[in-house]
Design goal:
Number of helices: 7
Number of strands: 9
Radius of gyration: 22 Å
Distance between the termini: 46 Å
Helix content: 25-40%
């Protein structure tokens, strides 16, 4: 089995995933901390038009992505890893919400396959079939209560949330422990405290004096208080 986390993305727009070559993710891939593959779903079609969708049974607007090319693509991608269990992530507005906890859980999976649906989604039998396979674990995930044109942008969000948590990707691991949704109170996670840098005064606004004091205990207490205040405000006004 591989020591490296592998990520495979199946999409009809491979070029949409170009940002995976940039920034932390690109560096992590180049350094061998992770492996990434992007696969064109249309390569698994049989007609001259590369059709991946059809009209929905029962009527209704839009088109539904056909199960056959998806089954072929997922089976082929699974062969790229020798892991005994492959985790299939189906991007859908009907899925469970992405959270920091979910991202942390997904770092433990050595092979993640992302199915980027479009139109009215992927034929539901694809999810049902792989849920029944002993060598697959299936998760349906949403990044929020809104609808996108496809799963590609959601995949970029989820992959970044996961990959930055993999040991070695972030230069200073302590920064992960102090950021939003990693800090905790007795009941839930906290958002991060406000941060400042030089100059000490900018456009009439000054950095809080405690941060300039050099008193590490007082600074820690101030930051904890600010995290709690911000979190309480967010919980009481979730739309703001």
């Amino acid at each position: 089995m591989s020591e490296v986390n592998r990520f495979d993305v199946i999409t009809i727009f491979p070029e949409y995933l170009a940002p995976l070559k940039l920034s932390l993710i690109g560096k992590a891939s180049e350094s061998g901390l992770i492996e990434i593959g992007v696969h064109d779903l249309r390569a698994q079609t049989t007609d001259v038009h590369g059709s991946v969708d059809d009209t929905p049974y029962g009527g209704g607007a839009g088109m539904v992505m056909s199960p056959e090319p998806w089954g072929k693509a997922i089976d082929l991608v699974a062969e790229l890893s020798d892991e005994p269990v492959h985790e299939l992530i189906v991007l859908t507005p009907a899925g469970a919400k992405l959270t920091q906890k979910v991202a942390q859980e997904l770092t433990r999976s050595k092979h993640l396959i992302f199915a980027c649906g479009r139109y009215e989604g992927i034929d539901a039998r694809v999810t049902a079939y792989y849920q029944s396979q002993p060598n697959f674990k299936v998760r349906e995930i949403s990044i929020g209560d809104y609808v996108l044109g496809g799963g590609e942008v959601a995949t970029l969000v989820i992959m970044e949330a996961i990959i930055r948590l993999i040991p070695g990707v972030i230069g200073n691991p302590q920064s992960l422990a102090e950021e939003s949704h990693s800090l905790e109170d007795a009941n839930s996670t906290l958002v991060e405290y406000p941060t400042y840098t030089k100059p000490a005064e900018w456009r009439g606004l000054s950095v809080p004096e405690v941060l300039l004091s050099g008193n590490h205990g007082a600074i820690a207490a101030y930051r904890r208080e600010q995290s709690q205040t911000r979190t309480d405000k967010l919980r009481s006004n979730p739309e703001k």
